[in-house]
Amino acid sequence: MLLLYPTFESRWLGASPQHGGDHWLQALRPGAVMALLLLQGSVRVDWGLSSHREIAGNTLIWLNTSVALPSSLRLVGNPGHEALALHFPVEWVHSSLLSLRQEMSADFRTLLLGPHPVTPLITRPLEAEDRAWSRSLMAPTLCAAARHLLEGSRMSEFFFRKVLTESRGEELFCTRTRRLALERVAKVRTALLADLENPPTLEEMARLCGCNPQYLSRTFSETAGTTISLFLRRLRIERAAEMLAQGQANASEAALEVGYRSLSHFSQAFRAEKGLTPSEWVRRPTAANAR
Questions:
Q1: Residue 169 reports pLDDT greater than 50
Q2: Angle at which helices 176-194 and 228-245 pack, to 10 degrees?
Q3: How far is CA 249 from CA 125, 243, 257, 279, 287, in A?
Q4: DSSP track, 199-219
Q5: Burial class of 1 by CB neighbour count within 10 A (0 to 12, 13 to 18, 19+)
Q6: How far is residue 6's CA from residue 2's CA, in Å, rounded to a whole number?
Q7: Which of 133, 194, 199, 252 is most enclosed, with most CB atoms within 10 A?
Q8: Distance CA 75, CA 36 (A)
């Protein structure tokens, strides 16, 4: 019987000089199947003294941490590393796939269902739609329960699309229209991040995406689960929160850096996204450890 509401979890990972490059290991959860979308930068995965593997960016890494956890997961090379870590409970994986064993490729079958390899890790090239999908996973501004359901639905779609379609070479879950929509979401995100202080207009982004503004606005909301304006707010607050946590700016400086001219409007937006005021965000214990 399938678990109706599995405890899925997603987490964005970046470079953190303060933690010496091995802090990604802390993001791994025991008893889970992990998909690590390595968008940028290389990593080295060590399994004790027995083996190690260096993996370049633009790779999708699958790990079964219920079999074994790496002893080390280190960033390699220049800064700028970025990845999205997805955690799927192993009980849910087993319940979902037992009747589909023959639909999976051999290495996925052994990694997920057994007999398990000594080093439970396989890799695949990261596809264009995977990058676009990762950018669209950013959940809209909803209550916690609704956000959990929406993220769980998107993560399960990703899981089955990657695990089950490979052996047949078919696109069971991702049509051409869906791929194009995901690519537009990624283009919008890139354009907004390029200048959070003075972001492009809807018309400018529509020209970039090759469609009219109304169509972009509608399909963006359908694909990303939120409006472009709320998506921009989330990007701005994420950038500001990072600056505050690392002591790079105070609230007023962070607000100006990401495009807020009013400190009160910035504080309202920050609380809506993070559930805390900027000052409360800075004082939280994890922020103190990051500096």
A1: no
A2: 50
A3: 38, 6, 9, 12, 13
A4: PPPHHHHHHHHTS-HHHHHHH
A5: exposed
A6: 9
A7: 133
A8: 13
The predicted-structure confidence for 38-85, as pLDDT tens digits, reads as follows: 888 888 888 776 677 888 888 899 999 888 888 888 787 666 788 888
Place of tokens 């025991």: 30
pLDDT tens-digit series, residues 253-286:
999 999 999 999 999 999 988 888 999 988 876 5
Specify the amino acid at residue 184. Answer: R
- Residue type at position 232: L
pLDDT the model gives residue 102: 77
DSSP string, 25-89: GGG--TTEEEEEEEEESEEEEEETTTEEEEE-SSEEEEEETTT---SEEEEESSS--EEEEEEEE
Three-state DSSP class for 168?
coil
CB contact at 8 A, 152 and 5: yes
State which amino acid sits at residue 131. R
Alpha helices (runs of H) in the chain, residue ranges in sequence order: 90-97, 106-113, 128-136, 144-164, 176-194, 202-209, 213-224, 228-245, 251-257, 263-274, 278-283, 285-290
Determine the pLDDT at residue 23. 64
- The candidate with the shortest Cα–Cα distance to 141, out of 133, 150, 154, 152, is 150
Is the pLDDT score of 173 beyond 80? no
This prediction's pTM: 0.55
